[in-house]
Structure formats: structure tokens, C-alpha cells
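User
Please review the sequence:
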Amino acid sequence: MNDPILCELRGPVALLTLNRPDTRNALSGEAMFAAFEQLFERLNADLSVGVAVLTGAGSAFCSGGNVAEMRNRSGMFGGSPEQIAVNYRVGIQRIPRAFQGLHVPIIAAVNGAAIGAGNDLACMCDIRIASSTARFAESFVKVGIVPGDGGCWLLPRVVGMSRAAELALTGDTIDADEALRMGLVSRVVAPEALMIEAMKLADRIAANPPQVLRWTKQLLQQARTGSLDEALDTAGRFQGLAHHTADHTEAVTAFFEKRTPVFGR
């Protein structure tokens, strides 16, 4: 079987591609769950990587859960209610936890349908760019279940509580333009330009000092749940470390020498 997620390093950019086009990149199976964990561990350990881009093979970004397994009450959806809760904890819920532990900024290049858990997967990323052909839905209610992968925690932090409630309680599908209007994505581009624009953005991010990017991402993550005092304490700690890095010295030197800085990787 092919790798569930392909990883291609393009200089300081890691291009990750969900590689299950036959299931429209459904999030199911131990191999898929483990792939997120293992890839993110690799990216965390490799300071030459400044940013990651996540997209999907085929026509879909990610179709969410495997509905055939739901129908058959197999895989993650088999067993008693208590067993299903365990299945989720040791299964798909490993993905948002892996994202929470990812130190590298990550961009979702949403090339097609992002449905159910696929919509939540996009929300796990730091930035979302969509093809004009992309579609989004927090559609769990349409198959009689709740967002078991953390969607009710993720979505309000992206679009606000009222819009998140509307999406989650109706299960409606929205197009890319509507996703842009509500702030679910930050940009919509033509399908043929999606990866070009995503990589351009990734390159602009990766041009900055890799460790500072990771510290900045941690501060943005902390802002979701932490207090101002906690944010200030952490920012002060990271700032003290940043002032003693070679990249800071290079950035300031380059500023005065009116040249582009060259950061270590």
C-alpha cells in the first residue's frame, strides 16, 4: 500500500500530500493516524524546515471519515458506545493532538472538498488557502453524529462562535467564496494557481529564522486558551532566547548593511 501521506522537501518547505485519492483522502486507519505523528516528529526535529504545506491527492482535500466503515460499524466505528469513545481517542483524535504538538507553521492548500473531519483538518492548520473549486462542510449532523475529532473546539477559533454554530448545526456545504467571506480561508485562487500561491506564501514564511518561526507559532497557539499574563511571560522567555541567537545577530547586521539576511539552517 502507498504511503498515506507523501512528504517532499523543497528546500525549507515540506510539502505534505494526503495520498488516499481512492477514498477521497478519508481520515481512517492506523497507517494514516501514525503517519501524521511520525511526519510531524520528523519536522519538529529538522530545523532546516521552516514551514509545511498540506494538500490532497486527487480531486478532494479530505472527505472526512470513512462513511462505509460507519455503515458497517467497523474500524473506528465498531463496538459499544464506550468502545467507540476509546476508538476515537486512540484513532482520529491523535491527529489534532499531533497538530497541537507541531512546531512548524503549516498551510492548508485546500484543493477540493473539505468535508466533516476534512474541514476540521483544514482548521488544524495555521493558514488556509483554497482553490475556487473547494467546498467546505462541518457536516457531522448530516450523518447523525457529532464532530468527534475536536471540530467544535477548532472551528469557533477560526470563524467565531456564531458562524461555527451555524455550520455545525446545519451541516450546510459552503463554497470557497463563502469560506473567504466568513474567514475560514484567507485567500481563494484559481485551481491551477493553488499550489503556486501556497508555495509562494510558504517561501515568504520560510525566509525567516526557523527557530523564531517556531517560537512565534507557539505564542499564537497559546493565545487560543491562555491569559495575557501567560502570553507575556512566554513571550519574554522566548524573546530572551531569541536575542542570543546567531539569526538575530545576522538580521540586525543585515538591516544596517542594507542586504538580505542569510539565516542558518
Remarks:
- The domain at 5-206 is CATH 3.90.226.10 (2-enoyl-CoA Hydratase; Chain A, domain 1).
- Residues 200 and 206 are 10 Å apart (CA to CA).
- Strands lie at 5-10, 13-18, 51-56, 106-110, 113-115, 127-131, 135-137, 173-175, 187-189.
- The longest helix spans residues 30-45.
